[in-house]
């Protein structure tokens, strides 16, 4: 009876904690005399976590090199803003905000399909070109649509993004990605990273997996764009150009590839660092890239590359890895050890795949 | 018809610049498999060094060109030594991100030291207009740009295909691991590749300064990406492909801008690029790298 109660707490505890924090952010935080600037930075961090984690699915877990993530963000931002401004009366803005965000995510996903199809044939550096081109095309297309302000941008968007919404979507992004990464789909993604031809031979439908990965990544980038638009209240095509995409790339590789924890750490470090260096004025942009280069030389895999914190690994997966560890030890332990859960995805050529075989 | 021909001449001018920059991308990619995202910014530094030489030191055109090429080549070698060489054994993407970092650094260092206001490179060549039969013509600037670009590209093509060092360069792109066994000084060849690529980018920067005299610290970003696109269109890693790609991209842009509102230029150019990659995934002259099975 007692252990059962304990298990229930263990199972439901995180959910309750998340709900309490959500309620706090929504209802209590606005009443407190907190620094509005800090709250704003925190929301930037959240949006950047969504962008980083979703791009990490393609670049880190799948090993493709997508460089145009800001394009999806742009689609999400514009679709959600247009939905609200054109079709939703102002009185319903608060209520229909989630719908607009979903619309933005779906819109970005549809554009993501356009990238997925060429990715069946091109790989690596050529895919970089495809995604780069898509980023340029999206930006250029928006610049040519007068109805959304063309190059001048789209003003008058409501400030509907709250800390609670950002928090909710960050949790949703990380939760969904965690679920997918450790599912059958995620094994397929990792197999494509290791060796696409071998994955195909193993019976993985690589086209379908790639398609799903791009859809998923684009969806969360789109939602992040929607949140961004309703936080800044003004968007123009230039906010979503290659420079923005570069920033997201930097956050992914700073935090570390193939790691959700790395995405969180990378996005938070980068965003907060740039804010903290604000006093340097222009020189922070000189210093920050130098730090990045230094970090890459000292830690080429990023801060947490191929490593994961415990909360980002589902309990089921931890059990599988523990069993694999025992099996290896039993077999004389000479094979590649799938060491601790900390090295969940292990070195790129061992961990995730052997976990799959053992599981 | 004469309008078309005139646009073709303009395309040759722009294409020469794209081709010169694309060559650097392609050569570095060929030997290191590294997309050197800092290359566009190296081009920008080349243009600023040209500005320094021409506007501050008041050097003549040829000296300006040589100074900028040599100084930028030194910069390229330094970057390779400091930022890329320590990462040669690391995962490939770390080097790519380092390149992004180096690019950002160059942009903002230039911004912080010379300021954000655009600078104007003084006219180094007297402007003349040479008419051709059929209502068209070309300017002295266009002639110089095209001439210098062609000379540099021919020299490079000869160098890569007909000298021992050039052979070593191509050999590195084939198999870097076993090459030291043949007595090839791999590090020196790679440094030389960066020197040549950066020098060509600087030449591109000076030539851009001739045609469109306004330069600013961010000018390298878009041109750099476009040169990368040109390199890919031609087949990245292929020297001749990069030249062809540069001219194709420029022709697309110029002709789109000639017949559609110029805001559609990037849209159409990049859509065509996507289509091309769907049908020829490795570019026009590119070869597919062997897939491990």
Percentage of β-strand residues of chain A: under 5%
Low-confidence region ranges of chain B:
none
Q: Spans of chain A with pLDDT under 50 lasting ≥5 residues? A: 333-359
The string of secondary-structure elements of chain A, in order, is HHHHHHHHHHHHHH
> What coarse outline of chain B follows from CA principal-axis ratios?
globular
What is the 3D shape of chain A?
Answer: globular
Please report the number of helical segments of chain B. 10
* Order of secondary-structure elements of chain B: HHHHEEEHHHEHHH
Helicity range of the residues of chain B?
A: over 70%
Structural class of chain B: mainly alpha
Major sheet details of chain B: 2 strands, antiparallel
N→C terminal distance of chain B: 53 Å
Describe the structure.
The complex is a heterodimer of chains A (359) and B (293). Chain A has 359 residues and is mainly α. In chain A, 70% of the residues lie in helices and 0% in strands. Chain A is built from 14 helices and no strands. By secondary structure, chain B is mainly alpha-helical. Chain B has helices at 2-32, 39-56, 61-84, 92-114, 140-162, 164-174, 186-211, 219-234, 239-259, 265-279; strands at residues 119-120, 129-132, 136-139, 214-215. The mean pLDDT of chain B is 88. Classes of the chains: A mainly alpha (359), B mainly alpha (293).
Q: What descriptive keywords fit this protein?
A:
heterodimer; A: 359 residues; mainly alpha; 14 helices; globular; disordered C terminus; B: mainly alpha; two-stranded antiparallel ribbon; 10 helices; 71% helix; 4% strand
What's this model, at a glance?
The complex is a heterodimer of chains A (359) and B (293). Chain A has 359 residues and is mainly α. Chain A is built from 14 helices and no strands.
């Amino acid at each position: 009876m007692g252990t059962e109660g304990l298990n229930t707490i263990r199972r439901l505890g995180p959910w309750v904690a998340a709900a309490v924090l959500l309620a706090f952010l929504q209802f209590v935080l606005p009443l407190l005399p907190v620094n509005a600037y800090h709250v704003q930075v925190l929301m930037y961090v959240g949006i950047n976590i969504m962008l980083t984690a979703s791009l990490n699915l393609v670049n880190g877990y799948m090993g493709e090199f997508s460089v145009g993530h800001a394009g999806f963000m742009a689609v999400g931002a514009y679709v959600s803003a247009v939905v609200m401004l054109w079709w939703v009366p102002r009185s319903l803005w608060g209520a229909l905000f989630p719908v607009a965000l979903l619309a933005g995510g779906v819109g970005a996903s549809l554009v993501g399909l356009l990238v997925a199809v060429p990715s069946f044939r091109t790989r690596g550096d050529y895919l970089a070109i495809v995604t780069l081109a898509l980023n340029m095309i999206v930006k250029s297309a928006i610049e040519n649509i007068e109805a959304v302000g063309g190059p001048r941008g789209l003003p008058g968007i409501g400030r509907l993004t709250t800390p609670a919404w950002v928090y909710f979507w960050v949790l949703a992004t990380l939760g969904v990605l965690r679920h997918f990464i450790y599912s059958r789909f995620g094994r397929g993604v990792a197999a494509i990273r290791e060796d696409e031809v071998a994955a195909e031979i193993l019976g993985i439908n690589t086209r379908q997996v790639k398609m799903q990965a791009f859809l998923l990544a684009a969806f969360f980038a789109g939602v992040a764009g929607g949140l961004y638009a309703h936080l800044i209240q003004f968007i123009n095509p230039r906010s979503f150009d290659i420079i923005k995409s570069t920033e997201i790339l930097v956050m992914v590789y700073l935090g570390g590839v193939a790691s959700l924890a790395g995405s969180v750490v990378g996005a938070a470090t980068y965003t907060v660092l740039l804010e903290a260096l604000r006093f340097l004025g222009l020189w922070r942009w000189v210093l920050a890239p130098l730090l990045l280069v230094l970090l890459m030389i000292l830690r080429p895999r990023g801060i947490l590359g191929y490593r994961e914190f415990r909360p980002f690994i589902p309990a089921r997966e931890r059990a599988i890895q523990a069993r694999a560890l025992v099996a290896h030890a039993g077999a004389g332990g000479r094979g590649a050890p799938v060491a601790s859960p900390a090295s969940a995805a292990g070195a790129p050529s061992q961990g995730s795949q052997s976990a799959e075989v053992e599981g | 018809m004469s309008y078309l021909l005139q646009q073709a001449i303009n395309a040759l001018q722009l294409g020469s610049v794209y081709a010169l920059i694309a060559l650097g991308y392609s050569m570095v990619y060929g030997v290191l498999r590294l997309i050197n995202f800092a290359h566009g910014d190296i081009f920008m530094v080349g243009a600023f060094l040209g500005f320094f030489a021409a506007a501050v030191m008041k050097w003549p055109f040829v000296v300006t060109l040589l100074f900028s090429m040599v100084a930028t080549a030194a910069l390229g070698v330094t970057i390779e030594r400091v930022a890329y060489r320590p990462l040669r054994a690391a995962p490939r993407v770390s080097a790519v991100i380092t390149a992004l970092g180096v690019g950002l650094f160059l942009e903002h260092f230039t911004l912080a030291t010379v300021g954000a206001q655009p600078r104007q490179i003084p006219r180094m060549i007297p402007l003349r207009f040479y008419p051709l039969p059929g209502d068209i013509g070309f300017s002295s600037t266009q002639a110089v740009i095209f001439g210098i670009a062609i000379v540099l590209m021919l020299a490079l093509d000869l160098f890569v295909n007909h000298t021992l060092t050039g052979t070593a360069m191509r050999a590195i792109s084939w198999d870097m691991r076993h090459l030291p066994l043949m007595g090839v000084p791999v590090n020196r060849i790679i440094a030389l590749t960066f020197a040549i690529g950066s020098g060509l980018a600087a030449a591109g920067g000076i030539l851009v300064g001739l045609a469109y005299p306004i330069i600013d610290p961010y000018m390298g970003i878009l041109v750099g990406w476009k040169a990368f696109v040109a390199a890919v269109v031609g087949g990245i890693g292929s020297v001749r492909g990069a030249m062809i790609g540069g001219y194709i991209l420029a022709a697309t842009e110029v002709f789109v801008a000639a017949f559609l509102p110029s805001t559609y230029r990037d849209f159409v150019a990049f859509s065509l690029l996507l289509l091309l990659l769907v049908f020829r995934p490795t570019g026009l002259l590119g070869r597919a790298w062997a897939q491990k099975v």
